[in-house]
Amino acid sequence: MPILVLYATVEGHSRKIAEHAANQLEELGHSVIVGDVREPGFAIPGRFDGVLLCAPIHMGRYPDAMVRFLRDWKDALEAVPTALISVTLGIHSENAEERAEAEGFPAKLERKTGFRPRRIHHAAGALKFLEYDFFKRMLMRQISASEGGPLDTGKDHEFTDWAALDAFVQEIADDIALAGKG
Length: 182
Ligand SMILES: Cc1cc2nc3c(=O)[nH]c(=O)nc-3n(C[C@H](O)[C@H](O)[C@H](O)COP(=O)(O)O)c2cc1C
Fold this sequence. Notes:
The chain is of the alpha/beta class.
């Protein structure tokens, strides 16, 4: 059975991470279905060997569509190996409190939905200055300044550690292989 890679995104970076992870899983010999959690019509958990979820934090919250999906499907998800990639800028911050807050988002998600992923990876996201409107650009520049991040709004800045992501994807593949033997 294939692996379901499901993402939520506002500015596209979590989709990029999800697609990168999906390609990696395919290179490891798995068949993969990638879907946007907002779009109806993706197949249902229970038909998959494993489910990888990828979602960003915006203003301290994961997108509502992901929260709803996890609430609705948590029982089916518990039957297979699952993993969550939590995408934040906080995890990349120079400020230890910001990093600790970022590390705490999956536990908050679990309290909200009852869903506990078997594995969690924290991926640093991106500052998409070129895509933000004026006010968002100013807000994000200010936040970036307070966290010791880049201030050049003339380009996007990406902080994702792709090698660390690949290592995490390998762990997921190992989980799925082990579950298949059980
Ligand atoms: C309006 C806005 C609010 C954000 N709020 C947070 C936040 O509360 N904590 C955090 O760590 N990152 C925050 N971020 C950073 C995003 O998680 C990061 O930009 C991520 O790459 C967005 O992923 P997406 O492109 O899939 O939407 C915020 C970004 C934006 C644009």
